[in-house]
Amino acid sequence: MGDLELIEKAKKEGIELVFDRYNKQKPLCNFGLNGTCCKNCHQGPCRIIPGKSERGICGVNAETIIARNLVRICASGASSHADHAREMLIALYKIAEKKHNHYSIKDEKKLIFLAKKLGINNRNKEIIAKRLVEEGLEDFRRQEGLYHKKEGDYLNWLKIRANKRLIKKWQRLNILPINSDLETSHALHQTTMGNDADPIHLLLTVLKLGLVDGYSGLVLGSDISDIVFGVPHLVKSTTNFGSLREDSINIIVHGHIPFIGSKIVEWSKKLEKEANGVGAKGINVVGMCCTGSELLMRQGVPFIGHLVQQELAIVTGVADVVVVDIQCIYPSLQDIASCYHTKLITTVDFVRIPGAMHIPFKVEDADISSKLIIREAIKAYTKRGTKIFIPKEKNDVIAGFSVESIKDLFSKINKNNQWQVLVDYLKKGKLKGVVAMVGCTNPKVDNSIHEEITKLLLKNNILVIGTGCWSHVAAQNGLMNMSALKYCGDGLREFLGLLKEKNRVDIPPCWHMGSCVDCGRIGVFFSEISEYLNKDLSSLPFVVSSPAFATEKAFSIASYFLAMGLNVHINPVPPIYGSPKISKFLTQDLEKVIGGRILLGDNAKKAVNEILKIIHSKKLG
Ligand code: CUV
Fold it and tell me: Quick check: 402 and 258 in contact, CB under 8 A?
């Protein structure tokens, strides 16, 4: 594979990569791995050593430390996604104000669909959009319900997008979030020294933060980007480093928010002549990590690499500009860029990297900053060195599976009851279930676990949908094009064949639903089916797997799915092993509380065994 050749190239050139730094960190700290390290005050830090120091200085035990740490992980993850979604809301407001024309409301249908659910009626789409933004922002400032909790004092977006059966369950468990900022900040207070010491109560907070992540982050973020950029529909593109071009100027857009990338794509076409002027054939924009998926889903931009590959993209020697916004950006990119001609450009005020160029990006002057960035790339291209190697691999990809586009596909078979198409196949047993593959790649894990799990699921007639860095690994290994049909069991192949025949388009076996924020689409997908069947989500043959999670965000996404009553495979083991009680609660007893639990499995076979056990116990029909 191309990665190995690039790793070899980096070694020869004396460049340190994530894998080298990981090796230098070994052995990893066991207290950190087990979750039994507490830094929430400065009497310590404290570590729990069984048989020696079973309590921290304040008297806290392992269970409480682990549960508090999980709450903090989720608070951080949820606030990252919520910040992302709020950014989208503010941008939509500015667009609706029409003080600039850099972006517009592309998907009126989605706007109206959501507005109706919020009870907004107006003929003017800008007025509708502004009122919709206000309703969204309400989820960041609602105070009602703080003193006297009344029914209905919880997130608007949860109210309009979540499954009604689940809302009742969350109400009973008292985990409906009042407002996103309040819950994440309260979580920090709840877990500081001298506060909540009840591990079960803390773990319920983990679920509550999962709901914050889900409805103030994921679903809200995707909904707003659909309004601005359009709901994704099936699209073809390519993946792997082979999508970089030696004869063109390469701009890698990396991070999470689609605003900057989409503008750069637009201006890269308009400024092509300038690129030709310095001898380049054109301007090739490609995506990295979740921005990669955002741009792929709507504009068919090639997506070339996941978290642990970001440095390798620069090692090719043809990355002229790497432009980044928020999240999952290794600061090491600048060290590596400085060994080449590559310009690293940051664009968001709170994400600065020493040595990188900073071009602030605002929606109201998106055209100006996009042009500046592209011209930096044109300049950089003229300074390209000779240390160039682009791995040849390049796979075709079919992406663009939003809930809407999936229902469109089904509607060619059953116009009025789209979900019935999937339900029929599940009932007949030709499809055994649906597994959502999500989450990151991780230097600690052999990341081929994504590919291996996926292939085993396909073989077992399980429809695989997914997002995030999984989608990069799957696509790079050809699982998002028609060649992957060979991995499918007969029932799954028949199902995909029927969809292809009725829609006259190629339908690959792995359905790319977008960036990690688009895990909200997965939530809506599962919720709608459960509502259609009037059955608890936890009784349906649906499982989630995050086989190489790395970020805090990925853990809060996992708690979103757990809160929905789904079983979630998480690898590597989250920091819970320091307490047998917590481990047992999360991997067994949680099922009685919410319907789902954490599944463990550090290799593909073990993980798939666990997943299949769940799927087979939840047959439909
Ligand atoms: Ni947001 S969160 S490493 S890029 S999926 Fe990839 Fe996806 Fe995890 Fe980050």
Answer: no
> Rounded CA gap, 294 and 369, in Å?
20
**Tens digit of pLDDT for each residue in 3-56?**
999 999 999 999 999 999 999 999 999 999 999 999 999 999 999 999 999 999
CA of 468 to the centre of ligand 1 (A): 5
Whole-number Å distance between alpha carbons of 403 and 405: 6
Distance from the CA of 408 to the center of ligand 1, in angstroms?
A: 28
Buried b / exposed e across 240-268, counting CB within 10 Å, b at 16+?
A: bbbbbbeebbbbbbbbbbbbbbbbbbbbb
Rounded to the nearest 5°, which phi and psi values hold at 325?
A: -115, -90
Q: Which residues contact 101 (CB under 8 A, 6 or more apart)?
A: none
| Residue linked to tokens 């006259």 | 504
pLDDT digits (tens, 9 = 90+) for 21-30: 999 999 999 9
Same-domain check for residues 449 and 594? yes
What CATH number did the domain enclosing 609 receive?
A: 3.40.50.2030
Mean pLDDT of 188-199: 98
With both helix axes pointing from N to C terminus, report the angle between 125-138 and 108-117 in degrees, rounded to the nearest 10. 50
Task: Return the structure tokens found at 198.
Answer: 């009840």
* Residue 550 beta carbon below 6 angstroms from any ligand 1 atom: yes
| 328 C-beta closer than 6 A to ligand 1 | yes
d(CA 250, CA 280): 10
Q: Ligand 1 in contact with 469 (CB < 6 A)?
A: yes
- Read off the tokens for 36: 């039994």
- Is the minimum distance from the CB of 84 to ligand 1 under 6 angstroms? no
In this structure, which residue's CA is closest to atom 8 in ligand 1? 440
Choosing from 199, 229, 259, the residue where a domain stops is 229
Residue 306: CB within 6 Å of ligand 1? yes
* Total count of domains within the chain: 3
- Per the structure block, which two tokens stand in for 362? 């605002």
